[in-house]
From TrEMBL, chain A:
Keywords: Oxidoreductase. Residues 1-21, 140-166, 265-293 are annotated as: Disordered. One of its GO terms (biological process) is organic acid metabolic process. Residues 7-18, 265-279 have a biased composition (Basic and acidic residues). Residues 282-293 have a biased composition (Acidic residues). CDD domains: TPP_OGFOR (cd03375). GO terms for molecular function: oxidoreductase activity, acting on the aldehyde or oxo group of donors, iron-sulfur protein as acceptor. It holds the Pfam family TPP_enzyme_C. Residues 61-208 form the Thiamine pyrophosphate enzyme TPP-binding domain. This is Thiamine pyrophosphate-dependent enzyme. Its cofactor is [4Fe-4S] cluster. It comes from the Archaea. It comes from Halovenus rubra. NCBIfam families: PorB_KorB.
From TrEMBL, chain B:
Its EC number is 1.2.7.3. Residues 234-471 form the Pyruvate flavodoxin/ferredoxin oxidoreductase pyrimidine binding domain. Residues 509-582 form the Pyruvate:ferredoxin oxidoreductase core domain. This is 2-oxoglutarate synthase subunit KorA. The keyword Oxidoreductase applies. It catalyses: 2 oxidized [2Fe-2S]-[ferredoxin] + 2-oxoglutarate + CoA = succinyl-CoA + 2 reduced [2Fe-2S]-[ferredoxin] + CO2 + H(+). Heterotetramer of the KorA, KorB, KorC and KorD subunits. It is an enzyme of class 1 (oxidoreductase). Residues 15-200 form the Pyruvate/ketoisovalerate oxidoreductase catalytic domain.
Length: 310, 631
């Protein structure tokens, strides 16, 4: 008997299972790229045989953060920039859960960038989707960390003097073990990449290009796109070649060319959970289960720690 | 001073083993049947800074470090001398000797390492002149020479202990036993040889002092523990199996104890990138069904502000620890202060809805940390244990059987899958985790992975299944339900027979002293002295900061003519809280404040009381008296 039967059962589910039955309807603007992320995620989950109650979806704050409202699962709509530390603790507490974190480019590459770097470094077995619309959507169109140099907004009236963040390169340098970029305009690839990322045993980062027609007027619709697996010859398991390919894709984006696909994959690197178990710093069985198992006797301080104080 | 108590101080460089030596000294006296208390002073540096530890021992209840001290073992500072540039360090190595003159009581004893400090140096600091004025007894001993001959140079501290034992009449077998337990092998042998050689040498001295160790006898076996031990052990016994943190003095002690023990208790410890992450991880783990904690000191706790509010809003149980040090900003990292009270009570946007306990000694630290976990998990609310560098670091002897407790693996108000199948859901099958109908404000929760329990947790205001809602009626309902928890918790606390408030003194006394946190037991010692000399005074040590113990404090204040409020900050934060909560008694309360980084000594409380009640002048020093506004 397990206390978490949603986790251990085989499931047959379909897209509709991941759609909230009564409310709410997504309030994203018509034409918003965020719809594509929701659709791809809903498509990928049944493909992998997951059920809503074994999924823990943690989101940040932004238009993107609303994902957890429109996706049926255990959800945690947290605070701006902090989805990753909440999500990774959830994975540590119960490794049986399918943990997905998501948020905007401001959320993940700006205010939460420190967590992005460290969660990637630790290589938690989870998926992180960044809705990259190159803008602060929810707060009405301010320049974001991925806005192109020269981008004008109400808070950068003369145009941004900053070079944008290179999210793929940052991810590689930080230690993510699966890195991909896809676009709202490419739903088939998006769903495949999300499914792959979830299957990957380590930190999988997807930079998801999501157009914001409302605030990013000069934003491209992210068409036409090129799949790097088809048009470029590089080995995504080779760090140096991956780095070059990322650099090219990041640069080209600001020249109007959208390069998507799988950029990096490290197969044999143990996940953080595996590393921690191998050093004896994490229990073999899911920690959360201990609390719901009546036979689990908890250790007593009196039996182990008081002798040394006498 | 003979017979009733001993206050022994060891001083040296930060690398001279002062901590371990004093700990062994305290333990030896404890095993010999005495109650002990240690006070640790250290600068915020690893080496080269000068440090000291005091051990106070009495046949019964030691409540504070006391006033001044009686016996100085000065090792000098062996790390002060840079062989390449002696001049640079100047007289640094002498500081562990002359800097202690001001606090050494009349008739006291000084032992110093004459192997390090020569006659010329002693001349320079007028040691013998001062000794004559104060009737001190000075014993120069070549501790370095003894250590070199019988062990190794680093065993100067052990040699000093041997000399102390001979001069004070302590049986060395306690030290030998400890050395064997702690060190073992050749090292223990060398230390024991050094100890005994030093003892024999000093036993031959012509003893001019009349100070000796008091005799005591315990009813039961004792354990030497700190406030940090009390907090960490309570967390472990509460079934806490997850901690996330980032080092910051003085919270690091609790973080370290937990990190070292959690793997053996089947749990997980995480040192993370910053305190925002630290609090967020604890929230994530707790949401997922594990009992979890985090903590920090002032600056790190400031970073936890937003996650703390998230826990309040999402009703995620979590226990946070705040170890105060002198602020603002980096302030004085290794000095205690009680100036984060308002910070901890109110930080984060919106109306605060949290539990805050401020224990007064290691036992209270244990009891109240256990209660923090109970309330956090039963009521889905953040609970904070607020303490300071003084309580965290000082060691006390406590009956070992105090820790003979049962662990608590109960995750609190959580439904099983069976119960979930009966619980309220919306039309689409989402669980009403935030139902309007919570009892005492609490809606039992589900945990991710449970069938039939899915819901949305959000920092936004939300309706019953967690969807974002700005409907005014829903808002009012949810706010009132969350705030109701504080009322229910107060009722629970009042109903229990183990109040967190500690009372001391004659019940019918005319005057009162209110105190909170680490200064409590010092005040209790002062109360005993005041009554012994004919004053009529009692004290209440308050620990419940939120929800505030209105009835207990009201009864106390009503029963006294005048009340002194003792705290270590400049703005009388606890008195302010009391006035805000009770709405009266302003003219009755006078604050005795101190914020120079040094805790109160009992004699200072006595002086403060006399200045208030008998209207004498406050003697020199860094204390301040401040009458309440409107007085
Ligand atoms: C600590 C904090 N600072 C600022 C905000 C206001 N805020 C909400 S969303 C957001 C930026 C949103 O941009 P992004 O993360 O790119 O998400 P998007 O809306 O574009 O999906 C900001 C600045 C906040 N909620 N919290
Ligand atoms: S503001 Fe932009 S990002 Fe937000 S919902 Fe509208 S289109 Fe999408
Ligand atoms: Mg954005």
């Amino acid at each position: 008997m397990t206390a978490f039967s949603a986790i251990h059962e085989e499931h047959e589910s379909d897209k509709e299972d991941f759609t909230p039955g009564v409310e709410p309807q997504p309030t994203w603007c018509p034409g918003c790229g965020d719809f594509a992320v929701l659709k791809a995620l809903k498509g990928a989950m049944p493909e992998l045989g997951r059920s809503p109650e074994e999924v823990m979806l943690v989101t940040g704050i932004g238009c993107s953060g609303k994902l957890s409202s429109y996706f049926e699962s255990y959800g945690y709509h947290s605070i701006h920039g902090r989805a990753l530390p909440i999500a990774r603790a959830s994975k540590l507490a119960n490794p049986g859960l399918e943990v997905v974190a998501a948020g905007g480019d401001g959320d993940g590459y700006g205010i939460g960038a420190n967590h992005f770097m460290h969660t990637a470094r630790e290589n938690h077995d989870m998926t992180y989707i960044v809705f990259n619309n190159e803008i602060f959507g929810l707060t009405k169109g301010q320049t974001s960390p991925t806005s192109p140099k020269g981008h004008k907004s109400k808070t950068q009236p003369s145009g941004s003097a900053k070079d944008p963040v290179r999210p793929l390169t940052l991810s590689l340098a930080s230690g993510a073990s699966y890195i991909a970029r896809t676009a709202a305009t490419n739903p088939r690839q998006a769903q495949q990449i999300i499914a792959e990322a979830i299957e990957h045993d380590g930190f999988a980062h997807i930079d998801f290009l999501t157009q914001c027609p409302t605030w990013n007027k000069d934003a491209k619709e992210y068409v036409p796109y090129t799949d790097v697996q088809e048009e470029y010859d590089f080995d995504k398991t080779d760090r140096r070649e991956a780095a070059d390919m990322m650099y090219e894709a990041e640069t080209k984006l600001y020249e109007g060319e959208v390069l998507t696909g799988r950029f990096f994959r490290e197969e044999n690197r143990p996940s953080y959970g595996q590393e921690k178990r191998s050093t004896g710093e994490m229990p073999e069985d899911p920690l959360a289960e201990r609390y719901y198992d009546d036979d689990d006797g908890f250790e007593r301080v009196a039996d182990h720690l008081i002798e040394r104080h006498k | 001073m003979t017979g009733s108590e001993l206050k022994w101080r060891i001083a040296g460089g930060s690398g001279d083993g002062i901590d371990s030596t004093s700990q062994n000294f305290a333990k030896a006296l404890m095993r010999a049947g005495l109650d002990v208390f240690t006070h640790r002073h250290y600068p915020s540096r690893i080496r080269g800074g000068h440090t000291y530890v005091e051990v106070r021992a009495q046949p019964d209840d030691v409540r504070s470090r006391g006033d001044g001290f009686d016996f100085l073992l000065s090792l000098g500072d062996s790390f002060a001398r840079n062989p390449d540039d002696e001049a640079y360090y100047g007289e640094e190595e002498l500081k562990p000797l002359y800097e202690h003159f001001d606090d050494l009581n009349e008739g006291g004893v000084i032992v110093y390492d004459s192997g390090l400090i020569d006659d010329e140096a002693v001349e320079e600091i007028n040691l013998y002149e001062r000794a004559e004025e104060n009737n001190w007894h000075v014993y120069p001993v070549d501790l370095r020479g003894l250590a070199r001959e019988h062990g190794r140079e680093v065993m100067r501290n052990t040699a000093g202990v041997g000399v102390s034992a001979a001069l004070l009449g302590v049986d060395t077998s306690y030290f030998e036993e400890l050395m064997q337990e702690v060190m073992g092998g050749d090292i223990a042998e060398a230390n024991i040889e050094t100890l005994n050689a030093a003892y024999e040498q000093a036993a031959e001295f012509d003893h001019t002092h009349d100070l000796e160790v008091p005799k005591g006898d315990h009813d039961s076996e004792q354990a030497l523990v700190t406030g940090s031990d009390g907090i960490a052990y309570a967390a472990l016994d509460s079934g806490c199996r997850f901690i996330s943190g980032y080092p910051m003095t003085p919270w690091t002690d609790v973080f370290t104890i937990m990190s070292q023990n959690l793997p053996h208790f089947g749990g997980i410890a995480e040192q993370v990138e910053d305190e925002i992450a630290a609090a967020s991880l604890a929230i994530g783990a707790s949401h997922t069904g594990v009992k979890a904690m985090s903590g920090s000191s002032g600056g790190g706790f400031a970073l936890m502000s937003e996650p703390l509010g998230l826990a309040e809003m999402t009703e995620t149980p979590v226990v946070l620890i705040e170890a105060m040090r002198a602020g603002p900003s980096t302030g004085m990292p290794t000095k205690p202060e009680q100036a984060d009270l308002e910070h901890v009570l109110y930080t984060s946007q919106g109306d605060s809805c949290r539990v805050v306990f401020a224990p007064g000694n290691p036992q209270e630290a244990y009891e109240q940390t256990r209660k923090a976990f109970e309330y956090a998990y039963d009521y889905h609310i953040p609970a904070i244990v607020l303490y300071d560098q003084k309580l965290g670091g000082e060691m006390r002897s406590v009956p070992a059987e105090f820790f003979d407790r049962e662990p608590d693996s109960d995750p609190g108000a959580v439904l099983t899958e069976d119960e979930l199948s009966e619980a309220a859901h919306d039309a689409a099958g989402k669980f009403k985790r935030y139902s309007h109908d919570g009892e005492d404000g609490v809606v039992p929760r589900s945990v991710p992975g449970q069938e039939g329990g899915r819901f949305l947790a959000t920092g936004n205001e939300s309706q019953e299944v967690g969807h974002i809602s700005e409907d005014p009626d829903n808002r009012k309902h949810q706010m009132d339900r969350r705030m109701e928890k504080l009322t229910s918790i107060r009722e629970d606390l009042n109903a229990g027979d183990d109040s967190n408030q500690a009372f001391h003194g004659p019940a019918d006394a005319d005057y009162g002293i209110l105190v909170w946190g680490s200064q409590q037991d010092t005040v209790f010692e002062a109360v005993d002295r005041l009554n012994a000399r004919g004053s009529s005074v009692k004290a209440l040590g308050v620990s419940d900061m939120m929800p505030y113990p209105e009835s207990e404090v009201t009864a106390f204040l009503e029963s006294v003519e005048e009340c002194l409020v003792v705290e270590m900050n400049a703005t009388a934060q606890f008195r302010g809280l009391t006035q805000k909560e009770l709405g009266r008694f302003g003219p009755k309360m006078t604050s005795l404040l101190k914020y120079d980084g040094e805790p109160f000594e009992p004699s200072e409380i006595v002086e403060g009381f006399e200045a208030t009640v008998e209207e004498t002048d406050l003697p020199g020093g860094n204390m301040e008296l401040r009458p309440a506004a409107g007085d």
